[in-house]
Amino acid sequence: MLLTLTTTRAPASDLGYLLGKNPGRAQSFELSFGRAHVFYPEASEARCTAALLLDVDPVGLVRKSQPGDAFALGEYTNDRPYVASSFLAVAISRVFGAALGGRSRERPALAEAALPLEAKIDVVPARGAERLIRGLWEPLGYTIELERVPLVDDDPRWGESPYYRITLRAERRLCELLRHLTVLIPVLDGDKHYWVGGDEVDKLLDRGEGWLADHPLREVIVHRYLRHQRSLARDALRRLSDDEAPLAEAAAPAQAQGEEVIESKISLDEARRQAVIAALQEAGARSVVDLGCGEGKLLRSLARERAFERILGVDVSLTCLERARDRLRLDEASEKTRARIQLLQGSVVYRDERLHGLDAAVAIEVIEHLDPSRLGAFARALFGLNRPPTVILTTPNREHNVRFEGLRPGAMRHSDHRFEWTREEFQAWARDVAERYGYAVQFSGIGDDDAEVGAPTQMGVFRR
């Protein structure tokens, strides 16, 4: 199986720096199922192409295969060694791991830049499902060319095969293209060569961050990527929408979808993070703490921005902190990265000396989970004791709830919410806190603004 990656952004040969592979020589890598070879058919200032050729060992596959083939020779007469599948996805992650993670030691700015990219995959087993191929890639902004591969060249009597050559073109970061490939290639194949367990959910959510939650074929992708294991798919779909747990109230089907499902149609999860990062950048913050960091979605976004030199995540849940650690891959990170990003167990309503001296503090959708009687302790700990120059809070706008389909009148977006404020209520509380602790505060909405009921999320930015 063969994958080629091409760019025309000058100097195009810098693609070698992004992939971490020298265009001047061919390289080979041992994998558990064969060998991967990387070489450059062309490498000029104007155009550069890197090729990943995967040579799968068919005999080794037979030795490692599991029983249950449909017929006696099924182990020997199959297309697994020759078509793009989970083998290729694993090879991409092993051989181009730094590029997949968006890292480049020699060209860090280029790794963050959108490039004109072209990817060719030869071939994918789509079983004639051209509609599925287009449905997976086109919503992500790719221009796609498909070539149906004949069973026998120059002999149409044999008919068409169930295989396609795919060419994808888009202007985007290289890491985004690689993440799309490592998720959607196994989805097209519909199978995997290794055991699929709970860690595959974490991998899917990691590589699907920023695009999978909004994809129109989200459920198809999740189920096929996880080999139709329903319990894993349910967990992935729940966690895709937000960091919160689903509701357990069987008597309230609309509310039981959870805040994350109710809001998913308008992508509030991603919109909040983008708005918060923009506010932090405007404030010139270099050190940030995410209070109630959950599974680390905001932390991951902050880590990609080099302006933030110190990043802390605080949560009361050890389980969430472990998931955040996995999402950030801190166990495999360098000492420099582990010094830059730290995870701490703690409560947002108590004084914590570890948080002193930071430029900014963020609490995304946190305060509504506190009992109203604890809001005073929260404000005192954050604004009175830690006193960062910038504080950013977001919380639901209760007025907008009438725009959510299926949310019954008077219901809140999640069963763990202790309250949900109108814009007037949030602004009154925030102004009181700002005046008491010497801050100024500005308000804005996040998400589609509604002339009558406002945006679905409201944000307050406090500065002193």
Describe it.
The N and C termini lie far apart (58 Å). The chain is elongated. Strand 11, helix 16 (375-386) and strand 12 (390-396) form a beta-alpha-beta unit. It has helices spanning 15-19, 58-64, 86-95, 97-100, 108-111, 130-137, 174-189, 198-207, 218-225, 230-241, 258-264, 268-283, 297-303, 318-328, 335-340, 375-386, 423-437, and strands at residues 2-7, 27-31, 34-43, 48-56, 115-125, 143-150, 160-172, 287-291, 310-315, 341-345, 360-364, 390-396, 440-446, 457-463. The strands form two sheets. A seven-stranded antiparallel β-sheet has the order 2-3-4-1-5-7-6. It has a seven-stranded mixed β-sheet with strand order 10-9-8-11-12-14-13, sandwiched between helices. The chain has 464 residues and is an alpha/beta fold. The chain is built from 17 helices and 14 strands.
